C-alpha cells in the first residue's frame, strides 16, 4: 500500500514562492516591531493541559490537540478519565504561553516588558480559506504598563507594520469590555447572562440588528430588556459622536475612565498615525477570549472582508499564575490571512536585488565547472544571489520556472563553447 502524499487535513505544504513571501513578511514584522522596542521570545509548542483548559481561551479550548502521557505514565488499562491519559496539548494561541513565560521569568525581565512572539499554533477547527489547523500567529504584548500608553503603542506598531507591507484604507475597530458590560447592565440583563448576550451580539455583522434582537428573544431574554438594548445601537448610529452618546446614556453603569480611556487612545492614534487607516469606536466589537478585561480592538481589511488581527487588555491573566495581578495588553496580526491576501493579489517582493541563474550543460569538464563555481562565489560575496544548476533539455521551461522564483538574469555555460 502506497504511503499518503497529502498533508493532514487543515495543514498544508508551503511552496517556495509562498515561503519567500512569508520570510519577507516576518522580516518586515521583526524589523518594524523592534523599532518600537519589542523583544523576540520563543515558547514551547506544547503546554500543560491545565494551562490550556483554564477557561480563559473561550471556544478555542474546545479545539485543543491533546497529547497523551508517555512511557510508564500512560496506562490505558487503569485509565478511568481523560486526566489519566492526557497531560499536555499543542498551544492554540500565543497568549497563554506568553503569560506562563512571563510568570516563570519575571525576575529576569524588564518592566514594562514588550514581547514579540511569532510561531505556529494548532486548533482542531474546520478548515476554510485563510484558516488552517496549523497556522502562524504573530503577537506583540506589553506587560507591566497599566496606562493606555500600551494600547497606543500596540496600535501604532501594528498599523505601521501593515502600512509597510502595503495595506491601505483599513480600519482599527476599538471598544472596551467595561462598555459592553455597562450596556448589558443598563438594559437589565442579569450578570450571569452577559457572556451569552455578547456571543449573540458578536453575530451583528452577519445577521444585523434585527437578527440579534430575534436571537436574544429566542434565547428567552426579557423583551423589554432586549428592546432597551437594541435601542442603544440605534441611538449610537444617529448620534454625531456615538461614544459620547453611549457614555452619557449608560453613565450610571460605566466607570468614567472607560470612556476617557477610549477617547484618549483614538485622539492619540489619529494625531500620530503614519499610514492610511481609520480608528473607530465599534460598540458591537466583542472579541471571543474571556480573558479580556478592558480595551479590545480588531483590524478590518476591505480586501479580506473580515478581521485580520485583534487584541486587547487582559490584566487578570498573569495573576492566575503568580497570585499577583499584572497589567497586560496585546495585539495579534492574522499572519495567515495576510499571506492569503498577498498571494491572491500576486504580491511581488520589492527590491529583491540582483539574482542570476547559472545554467551549466551536462558533461562540462571539471576544470571549467570549478571556474564557474568560483565566479558564482565571487558574485555571492558581492551580495548577488546566484543559483548554479544543470541545464535541462527544455531550457525555455526551465527559465520560465526560474523567473517565477525571482531570477531575472541568466548565464549559460556549455561544454563546447566554440560550437555553441
TrEMBL record:
It catalyses: tRNA(His) + L-histidine + ATP = L-histidyl-tRNA(His) + AMP + diphosphate + H(+). Pfam families: tRNA-synt_His. It comes from the Bacteria. Its EC number is 6.1.1.21. Keywords: ATP-binding, Ligase, Nucleotide-binding, Protein biosynthesis. GO terms for cellular component: cytoplasm. One of its GO terms (molecular function) is histidine-tRNA ligase activity. CDD domains: HisRS-like_core (cd00773). InterPro entries: aa-tRNA-synth_II, aa-tRNA-synth_II/BPL/LPL, His-tRNA-ligase, HisRS-like_core, HisRS/HisZ. L-histidine binds at residues 93-95, 123, 137, 141, 287, 291-292. Transmembrane segments: none annotated. GO terms for biological process: histidyl-tRNA aminoacylation. PANTHER family: HISTIDINE--TRNA LIGASE (PTHR11476:SF7), HISTIDYL-TRNA SYNTHETASE (PTHR11476). Belongs to the class-II aminoacyl-tRNA synthetase family. This is Histidine--tRNA ligase. It comes from Eshraghiella crossota DSM 2876.
Amino acid at each position: 500500500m502506497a504511503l499518503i502524499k497529502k498533508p493532514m487535513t487543515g495543514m498544508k505544504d508551503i511552496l517556495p514562492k509562498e515561503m519567500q513571501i512569508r520570510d519577507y513578511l516576518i522580516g518586515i514584522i521583526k524589523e518594524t516591531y523592534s523599532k518600537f522596542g519589542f523583544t523576540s521570545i520563543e515558547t514551547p509548542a506544547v503546554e500543560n493541559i491545565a494551562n490550556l483548559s483554564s477557561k480563559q481561551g473561550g471556544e478555542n479550548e474546545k479545539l485543543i490537540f491533546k497529547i497523551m502521557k508517555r512511557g510508564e505514565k500512560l496506562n490505558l488499562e487503569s485509565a478511568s478519565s481523560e486526566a489519566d491519559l492526557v497531560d499536555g496539548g499543542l498551544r492554540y494561541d500565543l497568549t497563554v504561553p506568553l503569560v506562563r513565560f512571563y510568570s516563570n521569568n519575571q525576575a529576569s525581565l524588564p518592566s514594562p516588558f514588550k514581547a514579540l512572539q511569532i510561531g505556529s499554533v494548532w486548533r482542531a477547527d474546520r478548515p476554510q480559506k485563510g484558516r488552517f489547523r496549523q497556522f502562524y500567529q504573530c503577537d506583540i504584548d506589553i506587560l507591566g504598563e497599566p496606562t493606555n500608553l500600551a494600547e497606543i503603542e500596540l496600535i501604532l506598531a501594528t498599523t505601521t507594520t501593515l502600512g509597510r507591507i502595503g495595506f491601505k484604507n483599513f480600519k482599527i475597530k476599538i471598544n472596551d469590555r467595561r462598555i459592553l458590560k455597562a450596556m448589558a447592565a443598563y438594559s437589565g440583563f442579569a450578570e450571569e447572562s452577559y457572556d451569552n448576550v455578547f456571543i449573540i451580539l458578536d453575530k451583528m455583522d452577519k445577521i444585523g440588528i434585527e437578527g440579534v434582537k430575534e436571537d436574544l428573544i429566542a434565547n428567552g431574554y426579557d423583551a423589554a430588556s432586549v428592546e432597551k438594548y437594541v435601542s442603544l445601537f440605534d441611538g449610537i448610529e444617529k448620534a454625531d459622536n456615538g461614544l459620547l452618546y453611549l457614555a452619557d446614556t449608560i453613565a450610571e453603569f460605566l466607570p468614567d475612565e472607560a470612556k476617557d480611556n477610549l477617547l484618549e487612545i483614538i485622539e492619540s492614534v489619529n494625531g500620530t498615525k503614519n499610514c492610511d487607516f481609520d480608528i473607530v469606536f465599534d460598540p458591537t466589537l466583542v472579541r471571543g477570549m474571556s480573558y479580556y478585561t478592558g480595551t479590545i480592538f480588531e483590524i478590518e481589511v476591505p480586501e479580506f472582508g473580515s478581521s485580520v488581527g485583534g487584541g486587547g487588555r487582559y490584566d487578570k491573566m498573569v495573576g492566575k499564575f503568580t497570585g499577583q495581578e499584572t497589567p497586560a495588553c496585546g495585539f495579534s496580526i492574522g499572519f495567515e490571512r495576510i499571506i492569503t491576501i498577498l498571494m491572491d493579489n500576486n504580491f511581488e517582493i520589492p527590491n529583491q536585488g540582483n539574482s542570476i541563474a547559472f545554467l551549466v550543460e551536462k558533461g562540462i569538464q571539471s576544470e571549467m565547472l570549478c571556474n564557474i563555481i568560483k565566479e558564482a562565489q565571487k558574485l555571492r560575496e558581492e551580495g548577488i544571489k546566484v543559483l548554479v544548476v544543470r541545464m535541462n533539455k527544455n531550457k525555455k521551461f526551465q527559465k520560465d520556472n526560474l523567473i517565477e522564483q525571482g531570477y531575472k538574469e541568466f548565464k549559460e555555460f556549455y561544454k563546447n563553447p566554440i560550437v555553441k
